[in-house]
Design the sequence.
């Protein structure tokens, strides 16, 4: 008997086929003796007898989370569930998916493998960011892909004084700075010229965005190190984002401290594909 019998279902309702796929998925899960839970905002839309809970209660009741959407949906759920140590199985309803595991045409054949216990858990390093204002802690964020300090809508550079373990690195004159995990190396960091990193390698990636110099390059930092970025700018249009989904307005001379989190995202893998197989296939699809 598969030990992951209590399923939490998370949908991206912006996807056109999310409800139809979810409806047939819930029926399959029920027929195969799974208990299905979901958020109260979704249960009425499914029109099926699934348990409804708020997030905290949901996390305490489930053994596996299933997401229907794309990588963005999985990232959102990963941040919420990481403190509860719950594995996530992503079903891809989008175009480009590095994190999601199942494509819709393979849905039920892959679920049969899940039912038979033919899967493994891929642990992904996460990072946390803390914002300090006048040396006082004001906000914290958790991210699976990246934390970004970036300028607002105006075409002006920002200066970002950066240090690692209190050792000064440089003051970047740039559009921003990306601090990414190996998982995030295929996302914004890649677009900004950062390296591709196998997610089994635990490092921090420091990549400036459009730096106004010929010297700045992406850097690879030890996962045991702490990166501090101070905003050296007087204007108010500076943002911190986590996984491109959570945003927070920074003020001049705020400090952002980023380090490896104690939490991991646990991704369910069914197919025996290497990171390089996925990389080659996905980047060719764009």
Sequence:
């Amino acid at each position: 008997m598969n030990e992951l019998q209590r399923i939490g279902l998370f949908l991206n309702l912006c996807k056109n086929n999310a409800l139809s796929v979810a409806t047939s998925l819930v029926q399959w899960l029920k027929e195969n003796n799974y208990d299905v839970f979901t958020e109260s905002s979704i249960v009425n839309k499914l029109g099926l007898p699934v348990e409804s809970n708020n997030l905290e209660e949901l996390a305490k009741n489930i053994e596996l989370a299933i997401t229907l959407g794309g990588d963005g949906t999985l990232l959102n759920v990963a941040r919420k569930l990481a403190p509860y140590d719950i594995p996530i199985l992503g079903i891809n309803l989008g175009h480009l998916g590095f994190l999601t595991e199942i494509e819709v045409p393979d849905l039920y054949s892959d679920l049969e493998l899940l039912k038979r216990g033919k899967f493994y858990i891929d642990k992904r390093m996460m990072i946390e960011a803390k914002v300090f204002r006048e040396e006082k802690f004001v906000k914290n964020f958790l991210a699976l892909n990246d934390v970004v300090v970036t300028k607002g809508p105006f075409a002006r550079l920002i200066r970002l004084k950066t240090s690692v373990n209190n050792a000064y690195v440089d003051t970047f004159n740039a559009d921003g700075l990306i601090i990414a995990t190996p998982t995030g190396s295929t996302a914004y960091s890649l677009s900004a010229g950062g390296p591709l990193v196998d997610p089994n390698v635990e490092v921090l990636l420091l990549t400036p965005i459009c730096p106004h110099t010929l010297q700045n390059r992406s850097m690879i930092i030890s996962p045991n190190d702490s990166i501090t970025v101070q905003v050296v700018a007087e204007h108010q249009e500076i943002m911190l984002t986590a996984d491109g989904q959570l945003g927070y307005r920074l003020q001049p001379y705020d400090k952002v401290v980023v380090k490896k989190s104690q939490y991991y995202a646990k991704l369910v893998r069914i197919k025996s594909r290497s990171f390089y197989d996925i990389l080659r296939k996905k980047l060719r699809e764009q």
In short: The first strand starts at residue 6 and ends at 11. The radius of gyration is 20 Å. The first helix runs from residue 18 to 31.
